[in-house]
Structure to design on (195 residues):
């Protein structure tokens, strides 16, 4: 089930929180290039085991990806696996291709999409699928 | 909480972006509002909430 539906069901009793969460989602997709954020969201879903396919599992070998997409996908993988130990090299690579402002926007948007997926996965696991 | 604890928890990393760079307002505001809305929830007791918050802050290097 899609993260949106899970969040909507479990936050039905907290409409104010759901509204703010959705506003943050909408803002993330407004501020960051949708193809770039979509690729990273897909990789997040693959790592969490909730994606329908693993189309980016071997993205390193995909020559069609741009330098920006490659830097952001590498960053996303480290962010997902151990955010506290994300390497300076991966952060610098994103900074090089995006610049300071766009990097901060990207990381903030990544937080939003990652948070939604993790919360939905946790709730679906603990409470079962939405009815 | 003493200064010793705070010093031990603050990262000595070199900032990865220029000082004063923040997320664009259209994203920063709803992120802040979402976090505030979560903090206003009262279902979880304050002590558990604070323990979780502190653990997350240390792990995420939030300098809080």
């Amino acid at each position: 089930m899609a993260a949106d539906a899970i969040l909507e069901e479990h936050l039905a009793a907290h409409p104010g929180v759901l509204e703010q969460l959705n506003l943050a989602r909408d803002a993330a997709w407004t501020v960051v290039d949708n193809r770039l954020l979509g690729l990273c969201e897909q990789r997040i879903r693959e790592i969490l085991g909730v994606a329908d396919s693993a189309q980016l599992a071997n993205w390193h070998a995909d020559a069609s990806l741009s330098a920006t997409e490659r830097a952001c996908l590498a960053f996303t993988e480290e962010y997902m696996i151990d955010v506290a130990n994300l390497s300076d090299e991966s952060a610098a690579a994103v900074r090089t291709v995006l610049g300071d402002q766009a990097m901060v926007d990207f990381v903030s948007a990544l937080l939003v999409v990652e948070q939604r997926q993790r919360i939905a996965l946790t709730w679906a696991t603990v409470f079962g699928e939405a009815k | 909480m003493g200064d010793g604890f705070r010093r031990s928890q603050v990262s000595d990393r070199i900032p990865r972006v220029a000082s004063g760079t923040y997320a664009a307002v259209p994203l920063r505001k709803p992120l802040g509002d979402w976090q505030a809305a979560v903090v206003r929830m009262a279902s979880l007791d304050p002590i558990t909430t604070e323990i979780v918050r502190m653990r997350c802050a240390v792990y995420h290097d939030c300098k809080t």
Remarks:
- The helical segments of chain B are 3-9, 25-39, 46-59.
- Chain B is about 55% helix and 0% strand.
